[in-house]
Design brief:
- 75% of the residues lie in helices and 0% in strands.
- It folds into 2 domains: 2-159, no CATH class; 168-335.
- It has helices at 2-10, 15-41, 47-56, 62-89, 95-113, 120-128, 135-159, 165-188, 203-217, 224-248, 261-280, 289-303, 310-335.
- By secondary structure, the chain is an all-alpha fold.
- The longest helix is centred in the first third of the chain and has 28 residues, at 62-89.
Length: 337
């Protein structure tokens, strides 16, 4: 697997997305075949919609797949009800065309406000285009086929290459904290340069991981709000590091005489050390005093007149203080509950 991922990454594909794509491809293929075999073994005729249900409910996590399965089933019932109502209400001779148009209009209108109902369109079309069958029998057949496909798809995700939402969240949160540590280190070292460019290389990876962590949190029901608080604290830390990056990259030499390289290096190491510790064992982490001490040392140099550009140096000290504050908020968010 690692060799395949390395090969895909070497051709410009995102490694995280490639890993998820391979897993979901395997799960979708297995779900489609099992749904086809199950529906053929039963007195059902909805092979097409059943296979679609098994494939389209596959989500990045098992919890997300179960939520999608429930939504697909409810949407199927809605779509069949709408299609059946219009077909029964139309006078004889109006045929499939008007029933199809009316059912499509109604289900599409509903899906605009409830996107998770969009699958009802498939059921409505399948029912509206039914010929040579009792409408009630056709509706029951479609509902049963889609329900069976959804259950099979959800079971495949649960037992084949399982990846729970909480596990995904913790994995991405760990990567977010590691990326924040790299970003803080990169931003801090720019203060030692006379003319560094703004921008943090680690930020693209950080944004991807934050997005994936949010997606995992959204499927966790009661725990979602608490997990979103942790991600919000990470995003505030990201904003503080961006501020530090802009302040540290200001042009010109800030310091008269000996630079504050050692102090800033200590600040960078302390921030990274605490972030990495939070990614491993957040409950046992205590505040890194070195972070505050480094900020206070910069302030003391400013107050002592040891700066060439007092205004820029003051902004840098303020940015360091913001990182210190955001780090404390992040630590408390991770240790809460």
């Amino acid at each position: 697997m690692d060799r395949l991922l390395d090969w895909l990454e070497g051709r410009g594909l995102d490694r995280l997305k490639a890993h998820d794509a391979i897993r979901r491809a395997v799960q979708s293929a297995a779900g489609a075949v099992l749904a086809w075999l199950a529906i053929r073994a039963l007195p059902l005729e909805g092979e097409f919609v059943g296979i679609l249900a098994a494939v389209l409910i596959v989500q990045p996590s098992a919890q997300g797949t179960w939520k999608a399965a429930r939504a697909r089933f409810l949407a199927t019932v809605l779509g069949c009800a709408v299609g059946l109502a219009f077909l029964l209400a139309l006078p004889a001779g109006w045929g499939t065309a008007v029933g199809l148009a009316a059912a499509m209009a109604a289900t599409t209108f509903a899906a605009t406000f409830r996107p998770d109902w969009s699958y009802g369109i498939v059921a409505a079309v399948a029912l509206a285009t039914t010929e040579g069958q009792s409408l009630l029998w056709a509706a029951g057949d479609r509902i049963a086929s889609i329900a069976l496909g959804a259950v099979i798809g959800a079971a495949v995700v649960r037992f084949l290459w399982h990846d729970g939402a909480r596990h995904r969240f913790n994995r991405h949160l760990h990567a977010v904290l590691e990326a924040l540590a790299r970003a803080a280190d990169e931003a801090t070292h720019k203060a030692a340069l006379s003319d560094a460019a703004t921008g943090i290389d680690a930020e693209a990876h950080l944004r991807r991981r934050l997005t994936l962590a949010h997606e995992a949190a959204d499927t966790l029901g009661r725990d979602a709000d608490r997990l979103r608080e942790r991600l919000k604290a990470c995003e505030e830390m990201q904003s503080a590091i961006r501020f530090l990056d802009r302040a540290a990259a200001a042009p010109g030499d800030l310091w008269n005489g000996e630079a504050l390289g050692g102090t800033l290096e200590g600040f960078s190491r302390a921030v990274a050390r605490e972030l990495l510790a939070l990614s491993e064992t957040p409950d046992s982490v205590r505040p890194e005093r070195a972070v505050t001490e480094a900020q206070e040392a910069v302030t003391a140099r400013i107050d002592g007149g040891e700066v060439c550009d007092r205004r820029t140096a003051t902004v840098l000290a303020f940015a360091m203080d913001e990182v210190d504050r955001a780090l404390g908020d992040l630590r408390r968010a991770l240790q809460r509950g």
